[in-house]
Automatic annotation (TrEMBL):
Record carries keyword Electron transport: no
Protein species of origin: Kitasatospora griseola (Streptomyces griseolosporeus)
Principal subcellular localization: membrane
UniProt name for this protein: MFS transporter
Major facilitator superfamily (MFS) profile domain mapped to chain residues: 1-419
SUPFAM superfamilies (UniProt xref): MFS general substrate transporter
Transmembrane segments: 7-26, 46-67, 79-96, 102-123, 144-164, 170-188, 307-324, 330-353, 374-391, 397-416
Keyword Transferase: no
Amino acid sequence: MRLGLRANLAQFGLLVAVNALVGGMLGQERTVLPLLADQAFHLSAYTGALTYILAFGATKAVTNFFAGTLSDRYGRRPVLIAGWLIALPIPAMLAWGPTWGWIVAANVLLGVNQGLTWSTTVIMKIDLVGPARRGLAMGLNEAAGYLAVAVTATGTGAIAAHWGLRPQPFLLGAAYVALGLGLTVAAVRETREYARAEAAAHPAPAAAAPAVTAQAHLGGGDQAVLSTARIARTTSLGDRALSSASWAGMVNNLNDALAWGIFPLLYAAHGLELGRIGILAALYPAVWGAGQMLTGWWSDRIGRKHLITAGMLLQAVALGLVATGTSFPIWAAAQALLGAGTALVYPTLLAVVGDVAHPAWRARAVGVYRLWRDGGFAVGALMAGILADAYGVTTAIWAVAVLTAVAGVIVAVRMYETHPRS
């Protein structure tokens, strides 16, 4: 049993493909669902229209937390299979659900699906590659997922422009579920023993300063029997790097909730046709996805902290450009900037958790971090909806831009560098 990207390339590549299908499940909603809320279900209030993102984010956040614990207890592969099984009814519910409640219920299931599958593919890749290529591994994982989001958002937008908002765009999701479940059952192997082997080779984190910091907050003791509650406290509050990463991750996905639920409605209000809205909805995750193949590798070379700081500040600038823009070229530039900023942040935050957390409790730390990060969907949907209804869409976007800039400053001031070579 050997750690490393090259030694486990076949299984790693398969997990990248599986995560692309996971991303595609999310991408089927990005263009179509905000417009469906407005045009098919006639939800005029932003707060009501964004309930599906609130349901998705809250469910996914909680599922992320349990995914790490479940994968430590029962293994990674069973959790991944369970996530795909839960996804089976989602495309049909989106395509033919007669009321908005069906759409919200489908997004509850989607949150469980994403929490189990995406979290588990992240954990499995960290298991396989070891510490040397962790940033690159996370970059490839997130790139696959969000490029699939972009491709599917473009595809569903084109399908909807030709055939209508339902049911044809969601047939892509049905194909993704069938393929993802089939690949997982037939070819994905268990990786938990790789984490145990790494833990056995590093029984105490005395050699690495980040791990020493986290261990001080945990109070010492046997790494294998640390309680989930203690790990949650350390990841959320106790350790400066882990807690800063959790806060930055939450704000990052608050931005994503805004891009997912508010931006298509903003573009439609300015008269953009459906095809162009689909292009804008895809541009942000496309730049985000492709950029992560570089930024994950880059963080392995120069460290994590400064990339995260720069990415959060760049996202804040991009949101300001969306708020002030009134035309397709300006919004396209803003979406590209937002994608670039997110690419700097997204795999790097996961790499921070992998740097600091000991292999014996790393899966649970990833779960806690993803609890906070994907809680940003719920917070973003609620906050953006309330502000947009009360003060207008532009005010909601500016408020999120300010929060994003504050998160970048917090990382710059509070987070310590976690990459061992730095």
